[in-house]
Amino acid sequence: xxxxxxxxxxxxxxxxxxxxxxxxxxxxxxxxxxxxxxxxxxxxxxxxxxxxxxxxxxxxxxxxxxxxxxxxxxxxxxxxxxxxxxxxxxxxxxxxxxxxxxxxxxxxxxxxxxxxxxxxxxxxxxxxxxxxxxxxxxxxxxxxxxxxxxxxxxxxxxxxxxxxxxxxxxxxxxxxxxxxxxxxxxxxxxxxxxxxxxxxxxxxxxxxxxxxxxxxxxxxxxxxxxxxxxxxxxxxxxxxxxxxxxxxxxx
Length: 251
Ligand SMILES: Nc1ncnc2c1ncn2[C@@H]1O[C@H](COP(=O)(O)OP(=O)(O)OP(=O)(O)O)[C@@H](O)[C@H]1O
Ligand SMILES: [Mg+2]
What we know:
The chain is an alpha/beta fold. Helices cover 38% and strands 25% of the residues. The chain contains 9 helices and 10 strands.
């Protein structure tokens, strides 16, 4: 479903290369974990998948269902079913979360050739999804992410993901700043979205998240490349031994 081939990318502003020949394949139905030391390029990779303009792809390709997405703008990628949950979600002042969800869901439906949701249907879906995440409906009247705590922002992202039903979900450090209960809620949210038609990429530093979201594959990113791939045991090995061994093998 997602195939990244020999990707090279740099910061548009100053030309610094961050992604240096990255290869990664994530199959339909697969949950892939990406781990790697601070600064290895994990968040950068998620921004590039989203289509942020601050980065330039200089070589290689990103295929989604066999089609390159490099020429698509962020909205087209979203319409194609790519969803990104960022390490630092953006605040959108002046737009109530509810309103944001309605516009996002309806534009997604439009892209799929489905009719707009009727208000009662929309409300029911939001209520069900918010309820399953332990979110208060009152919070959804507030502007998106503005003044939300770290944990609330993460819940809000999982809520969007549940409602938008994307085909590829990329979650960047969804465990950061979550308390133990919230971690479980988020993991349950992610697990409930596991499906044979959907692929997920979970970027994380912590085995404790992978105890809850058990990945099919684990990939280690280092200096802009995937230097090792394995199954869930690779994450356990990293937890015990740190990155030194894996980095040494690749060097
Ligand atoms: N816009 C930018 N300007 C300058 N440097 C940047 C920019 N974006 C990314 N970098 C650099 O690229 C490298 C990779 O950053 P990135 O945020 O992708 O790392 P990461 O793997 O997500 O790290 P962490 O585990 O700490 O979240 C870092 O050295 C970072 O400083
Ligand atoms: Mg990061």
